[in-house]
Specification:
The complex is a heterodimer. By secondary structure, chain A is of the alpha+beta class. In chain A, the strands form 2 sheets. A 3-stranded antiparallel β-sheet of chain A has the order 2-3-4, with helices on one face. Chain A has a two-stranded antiparallel ribbon with strand order 1-5. In chain A, strand 2 and strand 3 form a beta hairpin. In chain A, helix 1 crosses helix 2 and helix 2 runs antiparallel to helix 3. By secondary structure, chain B is of the alpha/beta class. Chain B has one domain: TIM Barrel (Alpha-Beta Barrel), CATH 3.20.20. Chain B has 12 helices and 13 strands. In chain B, helix 1 runs parallel beside helix 2, helix 3 crosses helix 5 and helix 10 runs antiparallel to helix 12. The longest helix of chain B has 17 residues.
């Protein structure tokens, strides 16, 4: 899994932005969203991305894992990720 | 949103004002022999590009004039693509040979946008003086054969609006992924040819109806981007919510937006962050807001849109 071909990510003070350069759509990200996207950009499957996030941040309630999975699904449904 | 960003997301870079065509509606007044004094050299342009990359500007479009006429065009595009920036080239297509299209494909440009204002030689060549309709079609075919994503741009005029639907059919036939259109701004050359060019409101209504119908017909196959809003309405939106986009002129000066005369910096002398700060201040300045309000009262000011006025910044 990685960012789709036409998607660029940039960190900002408030978190980050994803820019889909073909449709010229901009998606703003919170700092949590930006952390997930940075891990996606680093490569690996959704499972590996979530595992790395859990290793980096405390997640005793499992909330981070749930939200990260939902966020990844949301990015996927908007065509911002590719699987190859 | 732009105010919270550290840099623009998109730079529309007019590499040169020189052009091999002399289009009746050109807002930049480009044409043969119309290069500006002091245009950025290849080396200067590469230096600006490096600084845009360091500022993490993700997306550049190269236009003109005709961008392929800039002596550093290929090096600039290669450098931008090599840095991982997303690049679009906006060209009239007349200088593109098969080997150029292959090169654009291998460099990985995200799209090439060709101007195709009509579905016949008669309408196209009336607007794009010195241009040839068949040459653009051939360029489109060569780009597709080279695997380059193709977009088309259509500027409506009094004498081509009736062909909008056919032009969109042609875009699909050519394998384009995008079709861009909207109201033609009557500034620059267009201001002088206004009586000949400007569609009536009735014509615009029919034009937008054709475009909407074709957009529905080709949904999922062709992305049709049509700005029905007049430029004044768009300016009123932009002044409250500036797009994260600035226009880089051939000599390194930076404009707030094509459809305003205001300059907010000079990338030959200033850093990207400094110009970006001036860009955001410029949109908030009373001078810019006042000009937009005055434009509403006095539509003849549209003739000044392609001029250059330094923003008075704090």
């Amino acid at each position: 899994m990685k960012l789709a071909r036409f998607v660029k990510f940039r960190e900002e003070k408030f978190g980050g932005v994803l820019f889909e350069t073909r449709s010229e759509k901009v998606f703003t990200l919170t700092s949590t969203g930006a952390a997930v996207v940075k891990e996606i950009a680093a490569g690996g499957s959704a499972e590996q991305v979530v595992a790395r996030l859990k290793a980096r941040y405390q997640d005793p309630s499992g909330k981070l894992e749930t939200e990260a999975r939902e966020f990844i699904d949301s990015l996927r449904s908007q065509g911002l990720l590719s699987e190859d | 949103m732009s105010a919270s960003l550290g840099a623009p997301l998109y730079v529309g870079w007019q590499l040169t004002n020189e052009c091999n065509l002399a289009c009746l509606h050109c807002i930049e007044e480009s044409g043969p022999g119309k290069a500006l004094a002091g245009e950025l050299s290849r080396e200067e342009a590469l230096d600006v590009l490096r600084r845009l990359d360091e500022a993490q500007v993700p997306f550049l479009s190269f236009s003109g004039g005709e961008p392929l006429l800039h002596p550093g065009f290929w090096d600039i595009v290669a450098s931008a693509c090599g840095r991982g920036m997303h690049v679009k080239v906006e060209t009239n297509g007349h200088l593109l040979k098969a080997e150029d299209c292959a090169r654009l494909g291998s460099l990985g440009v995200k799209a090439v946008q060709l101007s195709l204002d009509g579905a016949s030689a008669g309408t196209y060549e009336r607007l794009r003086m010195r241009g040839r309709f068949e040459t653009v079609l051939e360029a489109a075919r060569l780009l597709r054969a080279a695997g380059v994503p193709l977009e088309l741009n259509f500027s409506p005029t009094r004498f081509n609006v009736h062909e909008a639907g056919l032009a969109i059919d042609k875009a699909v036939e050519l394998g384009a992924i995008g079709f861009y259109t909207g109201r033609t701004i009557m500034a620059g050359n267009a201001a002088r040819s206004r009586a000949l060019l400007e569609p009536t409101e009735e014509q615009y209504a029919s034009f937008f109806a054709q475009v909407r119908a074709k957009a529905a017909e080709y949904q999922g196959r062709l992305r049709v981007c049509c700005h029905e809003m007049g430029f004044l309405e768009e300016l009123k939106v932009r002044v409250e919510n500036p797009a994260a986009l600035f226009i880089l002129l051939p000599d390194g000066k930076v404009k707030l937006i094509n459809a305003l005369p205001f300059l907010c910096g000079d990338l030959r002398r200033q850093g990207v962050a400094e110009v970006w700060k001036s860009f955001l201040e410029g949109w908030r300045s009373p001078e810019v807001r006042g000009f937009i309000a005055e434009l509403e009262r006095d539509p003849s000011l549209v003739g000044r849109l392609h001029e250059r006025v330094e923003c008075s910044l704090s």
